[in-house]
Design brief:
This protein is mainly α and 131 residues long. It contains four helices and no strands.
Length: 131
């Protein structure tokens, strides 16, 4: 592997610094949001948001499957994105479920389906980098 061009290295370093600044700002916003909402938020289009997340998961899994059949290195990107969506789905299902049976169902789905699938997709993403 050759040395990086000075302009490319400078761009990479600026991008990295920018990402770190955004992360710090976002952390500050999280503190404000946590203090203001205090666990309560009213949401418009709740069902549309859930359906949208599921549509993204379907698209990600379809893309992953199609790229996997072709043995494309792009499988890594699709699998990583799909794994991330599954983790988000598990998190929001458990955190927004009503108590009792609904919460236990969400937890069971997260532990038995979504998290194992996300781990498998993560392993696929890693292995696809070597193709």
């Amino acid at each position: 592997m050759g040395t990086e061009h000075p302009a490319a290295e400078r761009t990479r370093r600026l991008l990295a610094a920018g990402l770190l600044v955004v992360a710090v700002l976002l952390f500050g916003w999280l503190l404000v949001l946590g203090a203001v909402t205090r666990g309560q938020a009213e949401v418009r289009n709740w069902s549309t948001a859930w359906v949208g997340m599921d549509v993204l998961q379907v698209a990600g899994l379809l893309a992953t499957g199609r790229l996997l059949v072709r043995r494309s290195r792009l499988t890594a990107l699709a699998a990583a994105a799909s794994a991330t969506l599954l983790l988000l789905d598990a998190w929001f299902d458990v955190m927004t479920a009503d108590g009792g049976g609904a919460w236990y169902t969400a937890l069971a789905m997260a532990l038995l389906v979504e998290l194992p699938a996300a781990l498998g997709l993560g392993a696929l993403a890693r292995s696809a980098l070597d193709w």
